[in-house]
């Protein structure tokens, strides 16, 4: 059957159906089904969130000051970003103003997360879609050393001996016959294009990045006590500052600041010497593989983040851009208002929920979620053993959020498209520079590789911003302001009987919003619309496909039984399924308890 | 099984010298809190023991346990994965997907029947026929049961697998259920925490590989070496507690002096974990050191014990006349008062749980 979607795609579910479940190297659980024609071109794509936890109903009736801890556990990969969004939502509802130092520390933590998440994503979740570690065994260590020095002259780890050691270790590992994580990879698939030297270089950096990532997160440990899942505070940050007074060892002091500063420098170094050069080098070999753009050239959404001054979340005060681009028209950037009931709405006609009557879209403040797990008439298999889904019916635990009816892409590429379109100087300079270096046209940005490159550029930009806010924090202390928390409204007796608020951030994966209603000191309802809900959404009522689905269309798959191209594009979004699939009604409707076998 | 290389062989074949190997054994001994006498024993074990296959499955979770695991500094996560275990299935990190991933799982189960360790991150939801968490088109609980059947032992990583954690907080809409309530015929080691400390995770694995046995477990099934003492017992701010010096409000003068966070709701007195000794992220800090109280994330049902900012002993609804503030001040003047307090707090805690659950049922 051939279907035309309102957002411009022709879907044909004839031909061969390919099912990937589980989609691995992502956070959470996901399934993907595609149809390919006789030329192995994808003609239909179906993305399914396959987990649901129901955190919002759990939040109902709790202390709003605790909500950050619950929502932080939505995701341990983008750890902290839900917590930040939550404290912002509660502060917005209660009218709490945070001190400048708290704003700087929160920004440093959020930027630190962006960098950590982007690095781990690229090297540990995404790289194996481009890099073949088995092929690295064929590399000449001397030639690898030359390649390393050519792509990144200032990276110290570049000697032939260094690469030979790594290669030897890899060789013994492969020869042991226990391939562990590399087992059953598609290592002889022609979709892998790197020469052995580039494979060895990148595999080496897989290991370097694994060592580095545990250093990066120490910034969270210093300010938040641990990572994953550091601690946050409504009204500011929990860590006090005591630079040089009695008991300073128990607070943020000079030694702690020095440690933060040294880690910030390590991030900057790694971005400059390893991450960006790798993306350019690897991207160079795949420069003709420009599939996967999907919605990025058409519809992008960003809420903005990293406020320069505390408590001002207007577009002009934020370093990461805010706005919406639709219909492929980059000449206009629309402002986004999370409070406007007409702008953001969620649809469930293809999701395993019901609103009672079909065809409705609801704003998060007025949303309803009632689980309704059922397979369509054309699904194959059984209720508890799905072979093929029926996408004409309900097929995912993810809802379909839309901005003014448009399916939107969110994430680093969306931020960079919105930033570029709004004339953001730093972003424009970075993007133009990368395209010039790689001799690629502007349109090349709208691709799987463009998404991967935008993430690397953003990591570099966030590294600089992290330093900016560190300097700002220190300068503020020098000026005598060491305040980190505003406790005027800590006591619930100071709160109004009823309040509602919105918190928004740019999580590593994209625009993240929390909507909270507070009544008599307790959470009356809580809603999260998260990045992978946008990107991984199923069809909506009108039939628009979501960003994952759109990005897979028209891609050529060399060997459908080894779906490396599909993984490549899905991974370029950095899917986070635990985040995307937990929405519950503001009324906190409980699910009916079903009979357990 | 005999074709499996020993650790020592693997480490040697990967260019690690005998000297480095012995150093590694010493560090392992130290990390496990064992004396130097254990070093030769560890070395011997690693020279003769096979590299153990590990299957790591994911249910309803947030992946914080995996993220914590890769933060391990001693041993480094890359050394664990490349040299110590054979991580044959882990959907978060493995290269293969879909059918090939499922095939890797099946192959490992068949080839290493009865000899692999099953690591579980997250838990199975039982409502909706288990379809709140789907893997390969089927309920995750089926994959869990299937992989558990031939496992040598099971590690329940984190609060999710051990106790249920956030998705099992009231009213637990998906009926998320901890592993030991679904798998009842296998030895299970609980390593709770949200997440557990990285070096505790690798320490438990290293212990099992080195000694070829389960660590000593407490009554709840947690390794005694890491979970037998309260955060409070080893907290460096403990003297302030004993002296009655407390933070009274966020960012007040006392907070800046690093006083005790007890009045800010710190759950250290009722939480069994290694945070105040091992600390986090290579010993950089732990929650209390960074100014926020412990939220008790390694305790069963910690989400349902009232606000994180409620004082643990300020529980007037349970008829406690002397609240812990007074107890704390009194303790300063009484030798051994701390011990008595702990006994009191423990009793309070179980009373609190009972009262809360009876309240919920009512």
Automatic annotation (TrEMBL), chain A:
Its cofactor is Fe cation; Ni(2+). Fe cation binds at residues 78, 579. Its EC number is 1.12.99.6. InterPro entries: Ni-dep_hyd_lsu, Ni-dep_hyd_lsu_Ni_BS, NiFe-Hase_large, NiFe/NiFeSe_hydrgnase_LSU. It is a peripheral membrane protein. One of its GO terms (molecular function) is hydrogenase (acceptor) activity. Ni(2+) binds at residues 75, 78, 576. Its main location: membrane. Mg(2+) binds at residues 56, 582. The keyword Magnesium applies. Signal peptide: none annotated. It comes from the Bacteria. It holds the Pfam family NiFeSe_Hases. It is an enzyme of class 1 (oxidoreductase). It catalyses: H2 + A = AH2. It is found in: Cell membrane. Keywords: Iron, Magnesium, Metal-binding, Nickel, Oxidoreductase. GO terms for cellular component: plasma membrane. Heterodimer of a large and a small subunit. This enzyme recycles the H(2) produced by nitrogenase to increase the production of ATP and to protect nitrogenase against inhibition or damage by O(2) under carbon- or phosphate-limited conditions. Belongs to the [NiFe]/[NiFeSe] hydrogenase large subunit family. This is Uptake hydrogenase large subunit. It comes from Salipiger mucosus DSM 16094.
From TrEMBL, chain B:
Residues 227-308 form the Cytochrome-c3 hydrogenase C-terminal domain. [4Fe-4S] cluster 1 binds at residues 62, 65, 160, 194. Its cofactor is [3Fe-4S] cluster; [4Fe-4S] cluster. It catalyses: H2 + A = AH2. Its main location: membrane. It is found in: Cell membrane. Pfam families: NiFe_hyd_SSU_C, Oxidored_q6. SUPFAM superfamilies: HydA/Nqo6-like. [4Fe-4S] cluster 2 binds at residues 232, 235, 260, 266. [3Fe-4S] cluster binds at residues 275, 294, 297. GO terms for cellular component: [Ni-Fe] hydrogenase complex; ferredoxin hydrogenase complex; plasma membrane. Its EC number is 1.12.99.6. GO terms for biological process: anaerobic respiration. Residues 1-45 form the signal peptide. Residues 62-207 form the NADH:ubiquinone oxidoreductase-like 20kDa subunit domain. One of its GO terms (molecular function) is 4 iron, 4 sulfur cluster binding. Keywords: 3Fe-4S, 4Fe-4S, Cell membrane, Iron, Iron-sulfur, Membrane, Metal-binding, Oxidoreductase, Signal. It is an enzyme of class 1 (oxidoreductase). Heterodimer of a large and a small subunit. Belongs to the [NiFe]/[NiFeSe] hydrogenase small subunit family. This is Uptake hydrogenase small subunit. It comes from Salipiger mucosus DSM 16094.
